[in-house]
Design brief:
Layout: H1 25-46, H2 48-66, H3 71-101, H4 107-140
Amino acid sequence: MLSVNNNGQNMSEQQTVSEFKSKSGMRRIFAAFFYSIDGLLVAIRSEHAFRQELLLAAVAAVVALLLPVSAIEKLLLIGVMVLVLIVELLNSAVEAVVDRVSLERHPLSKNAKDFGSAAVLLALLLAGATWIVVLWRWWSA
């Protein structure tokens, strides 16, 4: 039996790539940039935890730049805060997909959300440890 889609195409001949991936070259790069900006703006507007961590990262970046530590230490201090923001965005993406699939409570949905939350916790612990090590070296010098 031959399966056809709504456009009359043979299903085996159908494109296996999403229609949203159709851009190429510089158009794709510009589109990706603006999709990324949209994602950041949505996170700022709708994700309370992201806003809190963004504020923390902004303050931490200013403090890191003012500290009399090496350039690599400044990079580490700011970099771990950016890592926290990245992990929070990924956690928010997982939560959005889980909620999109179903708002019904399910053990697998809980696991997915808990895994994302655990990833954020680990990123925050890494950031805290990095700051403690760099500041300890500075204070004890």
